[in-house]
Amino acid sequence: MEPKTENLIRAHSWADKLLADPNYEVIPADSRKFVKTTDVSGQEKWVQHNCGREKVHAPSAVQPHGYILVMRGDDLTVTQVSANFVDIGYEVNDLIGVPLRNILDDLSFTELETSMDHSKYKPMHGIPIEMGKGAHRKTFTGIFHRRGEWAYLEFEQHCASPNPAKLNAMLHDVNQQLFGASNAIECCQVAVEAIHAYTGYDRVMAYKFHEDKHGEIVAEKRSDGVESFFGLHFPAIDIPDQARALFIRNIFTHIPCVDHEEVPLVPECCPVTGQNPDMSLVCIRASSAGHLIYLSNMGVASTFVLALVVDSCLWGLIVCHNLTPKCLPFAHRVVTTLMAETVGLIIKLQQEKAEIVERQRAHSIREPILEHLHETDDFTATFASTQRSIQDLIDCTGACILHGDVLHKMGSTPTDSQIIDLVDYVGSQCSGRLCTNSLSKVYPAAEAFADVASGCLLMICSDGLVMKQKAAFMWFRQHWVKSINWGGNPDSAYGPGGLQPRMSFKKFTSTAIVEAQPWGKVAVEAVDEFIRGFLLHEAFKGCKQGRNLLETMNYKDQFLANVSHEIRTPLYAINALAELCLTKPYVPQEVREHLEMINESGTSLLGLLNDVIDVRRLDAGKLELHMQDVDVVGLARFCLKMFRKQANNIGLEGFIIYDDSLCNMNLRLDKTRMQQLIVNLVSNALKFTETGSITIRLSRDVPKNELTVLVMDTGIGIKPEHISLLFSKFSQVTNSETKLFHGAGLGLSIVKQLVDLMGGQVGVDSEYQKGSHFWFTIPAQPSTTSEPPTQPCDGEGLAAVHEEKVIEAVPPCVNFPSSPSSSLVCRYLEGEAKGPASRTSTGTPPAVPSVPSTGFPSPHRLAPSPSRFTTDSDLNLQARNTRSSWWRNFLCCGGNRRRSMSPQNTDDASYHQTVVTMPTSTSLVKFLEDARPRILVADDNVVLQKVTAKMFEDLADVTIAQNGQEVLDILESDANYVMILMDLQMPVLDGIAATKKIRENVVWDHIPVIGFTASSFSDEIAKCLAAGMSTLLTKPLPKATLNQVVDECINGKYQRSRAQPH
């Protein structure tokens, strides 16, 4: 749609909405009659009742100089007519209900049909039509238009059209003068002179509307002896809103004779709708009675008014007055209408030209300021050195910038405190943006400084994503005292009963404080552009800072990764060697205690390192959740057992309480992070609990699919003033009673961040000196698989179901004496073992605990069920079928172990007996030759090579490779390995590249490759899996975990199908 058409439709929509206001009323024809000026009291009485509420677009009458037919739009059947058709020989009732084709002659109807398509919005075509009966028949000018579902045909006295050649010459001269005008006022002066010359009206004026809707005569051309109104102002109420809306619909109004008798419509209301027809576009429409009184009081006998519409807004009027009645022919009205539309177009072009100039001026001021700000990046210095430019950005009397707590003022402005209060008000009440020329109406406190800030244009920039400090930019305009010449006393427009036309239009001068000049569109745009440029600068600065911060964070990540790698590598050696030494049967007690301290210190250091890395991942948003099926009860049991030794040392009891809805159910959770949450809370509870118990409470909200974990302790509790600090980084409660408890203060912070990442909530309830309850609630959907959670097979744990919950106490297990170790088996094979091949050890077990029991589980794990061996062939068969699964069982158990309990005196004197039966040396050697697995370890660190080999010496034969290339070389000669333990960072060929080459070889492709690295960042996992590794382990790891991985590889968990050669 073209902009001109779109603006026209928008203007009409505004007019339609206003004229449809139910507050406006239709004044019946009889009531529209008013007493002439000789009866002033009656006149005032009428206008007080009717003026300002009249529906001027829908009168029930027309002016007497013409005739009208109102018809249905579809078939042009007449529904209403003006009563004066009797003057040309028609009976009014004979026309109603008759199609127009039957009223007009064929020639006139044919000509009319041709013009119908051109009459959608405005009646711009006059058609000669023969009308009348008998002696009354004559030629009229027919004016046809449609509006909505109705059609209208008017008849006026026919006049000859202007000579085309003379008309074209006249319009050409006028257009040249109009386009040559330098401003809108000069253009209006050209127009009024041309219309005065063309129409012959006594006085032609250009009437401009100001921002407050009052009008001013800015151009005038009058005949000799006619009173001048040039320079006079007229109040806005002289032209009510419904009249302004009507000028948008119909560009002209023509009243040939002010003193006339209106002609009513017959019938008065439409027989179809029961309402008056919409006569907005009817040329002979009856005028408002108030308007007629107004003109009569001015001494005007005839008028013709043209609207000046600029960009769909009513900019002003061209008003023609005549001191005697005067009917302007329709053809002349069309010519003057074209002139008015041209004037509106030229004014718009001049405004746009002026706006372009103003925008260029603002741009020339704005850009140096922003460039200076961009170059120096110093807000204060920039605006301190360019104060005049800031003020000159738009037309104002003062300007001010508030940046943080610093004010930069220029020109005439309010005081500092007044500015700050104003900014606070606009920020809270006006959404940070204010544009007004009457500040006191918006902000009453501004009345105190209206002399310097009557107008205010204020913008607040406080986007926390872009700016660190709030900035407010404001421009002020002073009010001004002005003497205004009115056309009559404007206060007389209001009488005791309301609005009324003034009786006098003599010059009336008033002096008043006038509001500040309104801020124009260009001024607002200039400020918007300045603010936009300022925000872009701040955003650019923020991006630059963000880029620098990102680089710094990347450096930190790299540094942390390197530090983590360098710490984990020796830590692995320290922990592994300490653990290996602890497995020896004849380590002196003092040395054993020292080794345990070394192992615990290494584990503590590893925990701290993991905490630091987790905090970094969480802060950077790089930690991702990996959902899987999790047995929450089993996981809680496992977490509680992790602390059994520490708890037993200080005599704490441990309990697990869980709902029966969690029995035999897996939930979709991130197992690693769920374990971390529980471990952190239990660790925190142990740290501050010296006596009593620690309990894990698990509950599930089935309708909401939420899991709540509560860790309760009987420790020292927390004072209320310290609770708010608990989940902050590096925060710990520090006082004389807790100074013995150490830690980095990251555990609870990690809990809070992990729970937030899971979309849950975390909290604490604590009473000082009585204990604390830490809890978190997270979404937990039930598993979609039907497999129940794996239950412990070693008999650990005691459970009792009570209605809706299960209470479980984890009892200590039986402490067996050290079972025959793998080193003993080796000595037996070498002939160094002394004593019989069978050994028996006894111990006194504790009583079977009741619910709840006391104590945490013992560190000893019960042995699996024993295997049976009969013949050498049986051994060989089992070796072929199970490979080293038996080997693992044998080494863990020291041979075949049977567990029995004496039935005698089971309460006090019960005992456990373990019998270890060793097979013959010949059978065992033969079995070991077939069953002992082989592991290929790739690591460039000599210390770790020896440590890893030592860790595996009881389980498998270990081959060492210095780098990835050596791995490939070894596999070329012998690929019979159950597992490859691959370090990632190695010279020559790193672990990932070596794994890719292994996966490309059809002979080696089936071998599980286990990544083994000191790096702790999750992006390594994706790289390793993408290269073809089966899984990734992080150093350091306990021997038990490495043993488990070997078992899984042997049992085929990571087995890959052999690729078929092409």
Overall body shape: elongated
Q: Tell me how many strands there are.
A: 40
* Global mean pLDDT: 76
Helix content: 25-40%
Poorly predicted runs: 1-5, 26-49, 734-742, 791-921
Largest sheet: 7 strands, antiparallel
What name does CATH use for the topology of the domain at 624-734 and 743-783 and 802-807? Heat Shock Protein 90
Name given to the CATH architecture of the domain at 624-734 and 743-783 and 802-807: 2-Layer Sandwich
Protein name: histidine kinase
Catalytic activity: ATP + protein L-histidine = ADP + protein N-phospho-L-histidine
Keywords: Chromophore, Kinase, Phosphoprotein, Photoreceptor protein, Receptor, Sensory transduction, Transferase
Domain Response regulatory: 934-1050
Overall description:
The chain is α+β, with helices and mostly antiparallel strands and 1062 residues long. α5 (164-180) runs antiparallel to α6, α6 (184-199) packs antiparallel against α9 (330-376) and α9 (330-376) packs across α10 (379-385). The two termini are 67 Å apart. The longest helix is centred in the middle third of the chain and has 62 residues, at 521-582. Among the domains are: 387-479 and 515-540, 2-Layer Sandwich (Beta-Lactamase); 546-617, Helix Hairpins (Orthogonal Bundle); 624-734 and 743-783 and 802-807, Histidine kinase-like ATPase, C-terminal domain (Heat Shock Protein 90, 2-Layer Sandwich); 931-1051, Response regulator (Rossmann fold). The protein contains 28 helices and 40 strands. The strands form nine sheets. The protein has a seven-stranded antiparallel sheet. This is histidine kinase. Residues 183-341 form the Phytochrome chromophore attachment site domain. Pfam families: GAF, HATPase_c, HisKA, PAS_2, PHY, Response_reg. The modification 4-aspartylphosphate is found at residue 983. One of its GO terms (molecular function) is phosphorelay sensor kinase activity.
